[in-house]
Design brief:
This protein is mainly α. The protein is built from 17 helices and no strands. Helix 2 packs parallel to helix 6 and helix 11 packs across helix 14.
Length: 374
């Protein structure tokens, strides 16, 4: 069973329907997430994110876990009974059984100490489950490249980036907050912060997106035009297929630098918590959606906001698209600064770094900026 699971995780391509592979993979993923979830219930001080603990409903999380266990266990048993990919079903059922043995969704959460070192296992579980459910469905419904499977080539590399970048969210938040306060705390002004903090939500949200995107635009442009920064950013551009996982391929140093620079003006200007929370949701959605394998251009709106079509061109190897379309939210910034793609084609033909010199594999890409001889 382990050999076959390893073979599955190292392969790519479409899953053949009718053989228990699709339901087996769904059950396996849900079973694994349930197992990680029960570990988080047992060790919340080390495996959960303090910011998230304050905001989510534990009772709802328990219900979601219970439903996931029922689905994973049910699919596994059906496949075992009908002799469909039994090895895959057995692996999924094993995770469900381990989760149940450890207490499942009923594990009590007692008082625990704050301030302990932690990894964001809860954020990883919720984000992976939510993103997969939403964006795989959208990609199948409005696919740009209909022949591109969910498990396309190099998906393993992007999953590794997704896991690491989410698991170290605690360190990232701590490091980013320290850097922002250390480097930009002097620029804070009570009068300015009071004005921005008092803005109504309808005015504050588009303004915070504009402020963040202006910083994002010039930071992003620097990643392309400054050779030492391109070493980091080339990792993100090495993805040869666009889908909801492709945006996760980022060097961890790039994430730290970009988040620090983007959060600096937001902190300095003093936007309200409601506005910042809404901005974080917008950022999270667009970061995934704009990389997705979705045929979305949005008509004239594409000149105002960034769409998958707009951002796909940024990842293109087409000559007319190199070093273009830098904006993350407002497409009009690229038209304003003269960096918007002008092409008679609707969509780019090929993605990735021109010359294809970035190696595949998570650890190889972590080392790449420091060992590349280019």
């Amino acid at each position: 069973m382990l050999d076959k699971l390893n073979e599955l995780t190292e392969s790519h391509g479409a899953l053949n329907p009718g053989k228990g592979m699709v339901t087996g993979v769904i059950a396996l993923v849900l079973g694994m997430l349930c197992f990680l979830g029960v570990l988080a219930f047992h060790f919340p001080q080390y495996l959960t994110t303090p910011e998230l603990r304050k905001s989510y409903d534990v009772a709802l999380i328990r219900q979601v876990m219970f439903v996931a266990m029922v689905i994973a266990g049910g699919l596994s048993l059906v496949n075992i009974l009908f002799n469909r990919s039994r090895w895959l079903a057995a692996g999924a059922f094993l995770f469900v059984a381990l989760t149940a043995i450890l207490g499942g969704s009923k594990v009590p959460v007692n008082d625990f100490a704050d301030g302990t070192p932690y990894i964001g296992l809860d954020w990883f579980i919720l984000d992976l489950l939510g993103s997969a459910l939403i964006f795989i469905f959208i990609e199948k419904l409005f696919a740009l490249r209909k022949d591109q499977p969910v498990f396309r080539p190099e998906w393993q590399t992007d999953v590794h980036h997704f896991i690491v970048n989410h698991m170290v969210i605690g360190f990232m938040l701590l490091a980013t907050n320290l850097l922002v306060h250390k480097l930009f705390g002097w620029a804070s002004s009570d009068g300015i912060r009071g004005w921005f903090g008092a803005l109504p939500f309808w005015a504050g949200l588009p303004l915070i997106i504009l402020v963040a995107d202006l910083v994002q635009y010039w930071t992003h442009r620097a990643y392309h035009e400054v050779p030492v920064l391109w070493r980091l950013h080339a990792v993100h551009h090495s993805a040869k297929h666009m889908d909801w996982m492709a945006g996760s391929r980022q060097h961890i140093l790039e994430i730290l630098i970009t988040r620090t620079l983007v959060l600096a003006p937001i902190f300095t200007l003093g936007f309200s918590k409601d506005v910042i929370d809404a901005y974080i949701i917008v950022v999270g959605f667009q970061a995934v959606f704009n990389h997705a394998n979705v045929s979305a251009r949005l008509g004239p709106l594409r000149y105002l906001i960034v769409t998958p079509n707009f951002h796909h061109w940024h990842h293109s190897q087409d000559q007319e698209a190199l070093d273009k379309n830098y904006a993350a939210h407002y497409a009009f910034l690229d038209y304003l600064f003269g960096t918007a793609v002008k092409s008679t084609k609707l969509w780019p033909e090929q993605y990735g770094v021109l010359g294809d010199y970035v190696p595949n594999g998570f650890w190889k890409q972590v080392k790449f900026p420091f060992v590349w001889k280019g």
